[in-house]
Amino acid sequence: MIIAVLIFFVLGEDRFKNPLGWEMVGKNLLAMSIQGIVMFIFTILIQYNFFCKSRLISAKPSATEEEDVDVARERQRVYEGRAQNDLLRIWDLTKAAGLMFPPLADVPSLWAAGSVTTAGSSTPLTPTVG
Length: 130
Description:
Layout: H1 2-10, H2 22-47, H3 69-79, H4 107-113
Keywords: Membrane, Transmembrane, Transmembrane helix
């Protein structure tokens, strides 16, 4: 191989082509560089939530929404400080349904009907209160 290159060089024929030249891979390197820069900018915009609109959700239920009796009783118990020994305390938890999709099921009515079952079982579950 080296001898063939030397013979062509002595005869004055230059058969060498730059492997990074425009005709070999230069076009592809340019396209890949542009694509990398665009995707990097796109990734940064996604990271900083440029394409997501913020949604304002009120912390307290509005006057038009009715709060369940047991939920109101539990909220009052937590506010009065009688939940100090509980393993888990959540303050001002709200349910924001209907922002994009309507709720799929009403869980308390499923428990009342006894239609909640474990996966692969036909035995209905019953809620335990304790």
